[in-house]
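Title: Comparing notes on inverse folding

I've been comparing how different people in this forum approach sequence design from structure. To keep things fair, I'm posting one structure and asking everyone to reply with a full sequence. Here's the target:
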């Protein structure tokens, strides 16, 4: 089997080149060709020695993921469906804003955590993506967008690991992918513009703090264990107190001085004023001094058979106001790309089930809330990606 060079961070590529008798600077050249210039063929790499250019195709490839479809939303959001084989597909979403371009990347085909409100969770777990499959999403999207927008500059300025899957349950593949995203010879993202979102895999939050401390978003969704157990089954393994302890351990390494907590607003389930008060007490008092954080309220994006509804706008605003007035900066996430099923939690990658798309869209048009904006006296809505 030949090696796919998209599977390597620079260290891995250097080791691979050394096996071929090549020096480190050759690895840097190759890495730059692949990630900065989007090359997929070795004969384009004109500054590599001819002998190396001729040798490489017999030992390695640069293999992207096949694109099954691309959908463009009226708001500029773009969603790709990538084929990862065996009937599985994963989705990647680009969200343009005035001052940034965010790519929401998938880490697994399906997800084993099985959160009640998440379409990916309902789908079950198929398999982990490889480093190459995670990076192929960014590689493809960045170079497609540069051509599409005729941009000589980088188009993707932020990456959020908020697509399909639980990134910290695929740590081995995630780490080289994150390192490549940060590498100045590749995508050169800053650590604060790269966000890992987790449902709370505590041991790997600690590993991430040591190995590659990027911005961290934690999907909280409930202010007490009984409720969180029923929404995020992983809570039975790592309950809220342990999760918040892990947040406190993460913070000294983090590129920002706060953790982002995500909270999906579910009508009549976790959206009452008493839940807001409990959440406020939790984050302000945990461990004695509280957890420095911002809270991001995500209006639930419905999908068929979830049995759940999005909280009414008034409930979302009231909830946010309790938190803001209690001194915890809280924003409401804008819904983007919902006309192409690209909003948070709608990523199902159901390649075998495209015919349902129109039906789902019609249902959503009837049920979805208006996009909501600033809560209470909080700052402008968080612009940090969405999917
Ligand atoms: N597995 C990771 C990252 C992917 S999910 C995690 O859970 O954090 C990214 C975000 O979308 C999470 O905060 C998740 O809770 C949220 N989400 C999932 N389903 C949703 C839905 N139907 N509506 C709104 N947000 C949802
Ligand atoms: Fe998995 Fe995240 Fe969806 Fe939960 S919300 S099922 S952890 S992808």
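Reply #1:
Here's my take.
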């Amino acid at each position: 089997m030949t090696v796919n060079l998209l599977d390597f961070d620079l260290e891995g590529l250097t080791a691979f080149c050394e096996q071929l008798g090549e020096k480190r600077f050759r690895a840097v050249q190759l890495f730059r060709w692949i990630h900065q210039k989007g090359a997929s063929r070795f004969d384009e790499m004109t500054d590599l020695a001819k002998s190396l250019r001729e040798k490489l195709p017999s030992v390695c490839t640069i293999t992207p993921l096949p694109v099954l479809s691309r959908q463009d939303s009226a708001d500029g959001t773009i969603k790709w469906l990538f084929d990862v084989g065996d009937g599985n597909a994963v989705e990647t979403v680009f969200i343009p804003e005035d001052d940034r371009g965010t790519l929401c990347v998938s880490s697994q085909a399906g997800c084993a955590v099985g959160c009640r409100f998440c379409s990916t969770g309902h789908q079950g777990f198929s398999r982990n993506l490889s480093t190459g499959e995670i990076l192929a999403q960014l590689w493809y999207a960045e170079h497609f967008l540069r051509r599409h927008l005729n941009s000589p500059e980088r188009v993707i300025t932020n990456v959020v690991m908020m697509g399909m899957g639980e990134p910290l349950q695929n740590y081995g593949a995630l780490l080289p992918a994150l390192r490549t995203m940060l590498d100045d010879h590749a995508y050169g993202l800053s650590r604060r513009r790269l966000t890992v979102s987790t449902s709370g895999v505590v041991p790997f939050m600690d590993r991430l703090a040591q190995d590659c401390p990027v911005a961290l978003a934690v999907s909280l969704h409930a202010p007490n264990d009984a409720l969180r157990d029923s929404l995020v089954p992983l809570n039975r393994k790592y309950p809220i107190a342990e999760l918040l302890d892990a947040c406190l351990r993460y913070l000294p390494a983090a590129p920002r001085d706060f953790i982002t907590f995500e909270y999906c607003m579910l009508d009549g389930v976790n959206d009452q004023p008493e839940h807001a008060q409990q959440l406020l007490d939790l984050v302000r008092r945990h461990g004695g001094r509280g957890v420095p954080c911002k809270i991001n309220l995500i209006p639930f994006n419905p999908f068929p058979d979830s049995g759940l509804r999005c909280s009414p706008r008034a409930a979302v605003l009231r909830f946010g106001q309790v938190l803001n007035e209690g001194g915890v900066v809280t924003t409401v996430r804008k819904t983007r790309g919902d006309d192409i099923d690209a909003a948070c939690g709608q990523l199902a990658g159901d390649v075998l089930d495209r015919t349902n798309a129109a039906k789902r869209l019609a249902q959503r048009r009837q049920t979805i809330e208006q996009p909501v904006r600033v809560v209470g006296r909080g700052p402008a809505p968080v612009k940090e990606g969405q999917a």
